[in-house]
């Protein structure tokens, strides 16, 4: 799987910026499919506070992201015609007319 965000989170923990970092990232699996990942990287210290090891936990949240996208689409489009409703029109007009 190719993904940059986990590497950045690990680097921030290992680099000493923080003891814990979380992320959500869009990655590609070996077949090229998009996979959304939510992860957490934590630094575990020994009894005197010296860094001992790093724990990396990741979860596939692709289904959740697909449902979120579907809800956002339904909120912004007419259910019968699938045309944009007032919300996208209002946003477009607000961007055009200051």
Topology:
Layout: H1 5-14, E1 20-28, E2 34-45, E3 51-60, H2 62-76, H3 86-96
Antiparallel strand pairs: 1-2, 2-3
Mean pLDDT, as a whole number?
88
Number of strands: 3
Strand count, sense and barrel status of the largest sheet are:
3 strands, antiparallel
Uncertain runs = none
Strand content: 25-35%
Report the order of strands and helices: HEEEHH
Q: Helix/strand-derived class?
A: alpha+beta
Rg, rounded, reads 20 Å
Strand order within the widest sheet? 1-2-3
| Tally of alpha and pi helices | 3
> Residue share in helices?
25-40%
Span of the ends, CA to CA: 44 Å
Shape assignment: elongated
What does this structure look like?
The protein is built from three helices and three strands, in the order αβββαα. With 98 residues, it is an alpha+beta fold. Strands 1-2-3 form a three-stranded antiparallel β-sheet, sandwiched between helices. A hairpin with a 5-residue loop joins strand 1 and strand 2. The longest helix has 15 residues, at 62-76. The relative contact order is 0.13. The model has no long low-confidence stretch (mean pLDDT 88).
Entry keywords:
98 residues; three-stranded antiparallel β-sheet; 3 strands; alpha+beta; 37% helix; 3 helices
Question: What's the gist of this structure?
Answer:
Helices cover 37% and strands 32% of the residues.
């Amino acid at each position: 799987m190719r993904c940059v965000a986990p590497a950045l989170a690990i680097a921030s923990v290992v680099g000493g910026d923080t003891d814990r970092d979380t992320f959500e990232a869009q990655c590609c699996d070996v077949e090229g499919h998009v996979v959304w990942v939510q992860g957490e990287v934590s630094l575990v210290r020994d009894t005197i506070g010296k860094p001992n090891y790093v724990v990396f936990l990741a979860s596939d949240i692709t289904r959740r992201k697909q449902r979120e996208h579907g809800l956002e689409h339904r909120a912004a489009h007419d259910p019968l015609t699938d045309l944009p409703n007032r919300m996208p029109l209002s946003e477009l007009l607000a961007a055009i007319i200051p």
